[in-house]
């Protein structure tokens, strides 16, 4: 993974010093809250319902064992011994003290981490595919490109006060696991007929109050121009994005208002001046970035070990379930990627304890070259596990409560922190997730349903990505009462779509029953091999509506 | 218009140093002040081309067309207004003036100019920073030097860090 050199380290250290100075001025009364606010947000610091919240960046989801241990220490020393992985591959601390934050940032900097631009109206952490570099369907490892984007966007002097937040996601695989169509800018790396790398650039996707699927700005950008083209896109947004209404300030509103042709024309007019300028990438520059993501030295795995694992899948039902749901094929035969489930009934989706962070660090070192990835579904991945160690890893994960064999099922709920923590939320979301996990815990039932994304957001800011859940649940507030609106048919992957609202919203206690009715309609109406999404797309909203509101 | 309505920058930092300022600032859209030198709204400046005691200030929503940039080339200084410190359009305007149109005289930030914006402003080509009156000079000078390294090229440095690293590797 990427390792800092003295430049990166200096910049992060200077950022800590800068924030320490800003915090001191704030506490001394020289920097009023309204002026301190954007500064603290761009260092990941929110003031929440009960306490401050610190959002730590995990660039494109990559973490080392050393970093995990440091995160464990920090949650013990400065928080309550647990932390929360978000849908954007970041980590949140829910209970740090305001005045401790500079010190926390300093301790993060010691392990090459930071909280720069994890909030605020600026370019946020660039996200990517959790199986980057190991996926069988990958044409180009997105991580070197993400790192180039990370550097370009970090403390960009022109773009620290954009109209609104700005999120970039990158995929280099056939299947989009980075949800690029619902980002402000989505990038897909692909090869043309000559084998040259090109970038498809989407703009104007996003969730939140006005969910939209991104439009294609450019199909075939030559890779050399990635950064200058991004600069042109963001400059157009900075100049013309609306600033009079924060609910209309995202780039998606600008793209829709101008139309994609006019937006593209403005970007191209801007780019004409930047193209071939000083940020044009060279082969050497890209190779230097790639050198940080070299293949680990994988030992060969015996053929019969692969066969033995297959045999064990048949013999041991629990192991078989784990392999089927939580283990992903690897581009190298004899290796697998293992998803560690952070979805357990007793915990909020995405929550980990400090002890688990330590334990995962140990597992990463013993089974997967000391690295871990964070997924946008709020799980963790060990990306390079030899199959002959799969069984022992599974047993260890089981003891840690991280082997729940439900990845990709209804039980693998994506969920924001909601009204239990978040100052923005209209309603709680974690108790909804827990009630659903409790009601639908029978594994055979879950497997029979097949792949099913159920996403929950506690308000229309949509941190739980409810618009792109096959089933989406949104907490709404009506005259101080919490209600839940249910939508069907959303999808974050290649053929992305936004869910349609089923109808009037429900009381909290009725949500599991409503979901049960929705699932019954699916089970009754599905054709062979149809997923929930397939059936929904074939039969539409009506049969679901009729059953639920009967 | 009575000249008592004119603003004077309490604290001006020019090229990283505090400096006594000669220029007054008028925000009145129509009335031309008597005092010289004075910075006036862009439209007023355009109407009085040739008056060498005048300089324009650009609102943050100025669309910097090539035609406008050509006229601005004659200005002794150009100020860019920050109506709110969260309005980031002025950063793009300054870069365009410097990088696209090669404007070489003073580019001054006016309005809601706060300590913690100064580093970004100076990278984008502002060489004069008229601090909002409540800002502390010592804080400002310290903030200007907050970073010794940057990833992107901007007005202050035409080289991306990735290029600099490659050069150093070759040299080493």
TrEMBL record, chain A:
Domain Nitrite/sulphite reductase 4Fe-4S stretches: 119-273, 413-548
Keywords linked to the UniProt accession: 4Fe-4S, Heme, Iron, Iron-sulfur, Metal-binding, Oxidoreductase
Coiled coil spans: none
EC number(s) on file: 1.8.7.1
UniProt entry tagged with the keyword Kinase: no
One Gene Ontology molecular-function label: sulfite reductase (ferredoxin) activity
Domain Nitrite/Sulfite reductase ferredoxin-like: from-to ranges: 53-111, 349-399
Gene3D superfamilies: 3.90.480.20, Sulfite Reductase Hemoprotein, domain 1
SUPFAM superfamilies: Nitrite and sulphite reductase 4Fe-4S domain-like, Nitrite/Sulfite reductase N-terminal domain-like
Annotated Pfam families: NIR_SIR, NIR_SIR_ferr
Enzyme class (EC, first level): oxidoreductase
Entries under InterPro entries matching the protein: NIR_SIR_4Fe-4S, NiRdtase/SiRdtase_haem-b_fer, Nit/Sulf_reduc_fer-like_dom_sf, NO2/SO3_Rdtase_4Fe4S_dom, NO2/SO3_Rdtase_4Fe4S_sf
Protein name: Nitrite/sulfite reductase
Automatic annotation (TrEMBL), chain B:
Species for this entry: Halomonas salifodinae
Source taxon at top rank: Bacteria
Listed InterPro entries: UCP030820
Protein name per UniProt: DUF934 domain-containing protein
């Amino acid at each position: 993974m990427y390792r800092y050199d003295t430049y990166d380290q200096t910049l992060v250290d200077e950022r800590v010093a800068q924030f320490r100075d800003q915090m001191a001025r704030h506490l001394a009364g020289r920097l009023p809250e309204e002026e301190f606010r954007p500064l603290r947000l761009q260092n990941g610091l929110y003031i929440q319902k009960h306490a401050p919240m610190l959002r730590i960046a995990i660039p494109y989801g990559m973490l080392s064992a050393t970093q995990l241990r440091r995160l464990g220490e920090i949650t013990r020393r400065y928080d309550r011994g647990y932390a929360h992985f978000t849908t954007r591959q970041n980590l949140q601390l829910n209970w740090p003290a305001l005045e401790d934050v500079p010190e926390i940032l300093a301790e993060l900097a010691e392990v090459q981490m930071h909280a720069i631009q994890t909030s605020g109206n600026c370019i946020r952490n660039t996200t990517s595919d959790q199986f980057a570099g190991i996926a069988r369907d990958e044409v180009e490892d997105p991580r070197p490109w993400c790192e180039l984007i990370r550097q370009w966007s970090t403390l960009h002097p022109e773009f620290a006060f954009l109209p609104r937040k700005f999120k970039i996601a990158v995929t280099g695989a056939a299947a989009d696991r980075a949800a690029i169509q619902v980002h402000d800018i989505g990038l897909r790396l692909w090869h043309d007929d000559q084998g040259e790398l090109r970038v498809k650039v989407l703009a104007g996707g996003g969730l939140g109050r006005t969910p939209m699927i991104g439009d294609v700005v450019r199909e075939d950008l030559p890779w050399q121009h990635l950064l200058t083209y991004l600069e042109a896109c963001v400059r157009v947004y900075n100049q013309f994005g609306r600033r009079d209404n924060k609910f209309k300030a995202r780039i998606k509103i600008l793209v829709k208002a101008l139309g994609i042709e006019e937006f593209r024309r403005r970007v191209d007019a801007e780019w004409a001046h930047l193209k071939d300028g000083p940020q044009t990438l060279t082969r050497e520059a890209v190779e230097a970035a790639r050198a940080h993501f070299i293949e680990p030295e994988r030992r060969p795995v015996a053929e019969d070990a692969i066969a033995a694992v297959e045999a064990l899948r048949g013999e041991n039902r629990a192991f078989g379930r784990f392999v089927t749901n939580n283990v992903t094929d690897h581009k190298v035969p004899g290796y697998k990627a293992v998803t560690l489930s952070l979805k357990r009934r007793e915990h909020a989706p995405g929550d980990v304890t400090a002890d688990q962070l330590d334990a995962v660090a140990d597992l990463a070192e013993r089974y997967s070259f000391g690295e871990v990835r964070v997924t946008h579904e709020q799980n963790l991945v060990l990306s390079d596990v030899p199959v002959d160690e799969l069984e022992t890893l599974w047993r260890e994960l089981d003891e840690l409560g991280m082997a729940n064999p439900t990845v990709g099922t209804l039980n693998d709920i994506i969920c924001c922190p909601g009204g239990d923590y978040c100052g923005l939320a209209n309603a709680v979301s974690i108790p909804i997730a827990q009630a659903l996990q409790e009601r639908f815990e029978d594994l055979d039932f879950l497997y029979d349903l097949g792949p099913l994304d159920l996403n929950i957001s506690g308000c229309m800011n949509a941190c739980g990505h409810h618009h792109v859940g096959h089933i989406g649940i949104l907490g709404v507030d009506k005259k101080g009462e919490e209600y839940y609106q249910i939508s069907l048919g959303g999808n974050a992957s290649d053929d992305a779509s936004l869910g349609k609202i089923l109808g009037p919203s429900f009381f909290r206690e009725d949500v599991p029953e409503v979901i049960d009715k929705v699932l019954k309609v699916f089970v009754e109406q599905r054709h062979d091999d149809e997923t929930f999404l397939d059936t929904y797309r074939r039969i539409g909203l009506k049969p679901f509506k009729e059953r639920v509101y009967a | 218009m009575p000249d008592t309505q004119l603003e004077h920058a309490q604290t001006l930092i020019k090229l990283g140093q505090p400096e006594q300022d000669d220029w007054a600032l008028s925000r009145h859209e129509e009335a031309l002040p008597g005092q010289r030198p004075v910075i006036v709204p862009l439209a007023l400046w355009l109407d009085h081309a040739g008056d060498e005691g005048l300089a324009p200030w650009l609102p943050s929503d100025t669309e910097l067309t090539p035609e406008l940039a050509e006229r601005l080339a004659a200005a002794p200084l150009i100020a860019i207004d920050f109506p709110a410190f969260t309005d980031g359009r002025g950063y793009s305007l300054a870069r365009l003036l410097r990088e696209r149109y090669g404007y070489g005289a003073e580019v001054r930030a006016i309005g809601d100019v706060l300590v913690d914006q100064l580093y970004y402003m100076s990278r984008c080509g502002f060489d004069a920073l008229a601090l909002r009156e409540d800002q502390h000079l010592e804080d400002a000078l310290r903030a200007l030097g907050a970073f010794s390294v940057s990833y992107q090229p901007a007005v202050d440095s035409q080289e991306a860090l990735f290029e600099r690293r490659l050069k150093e590797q070759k040299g080493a």
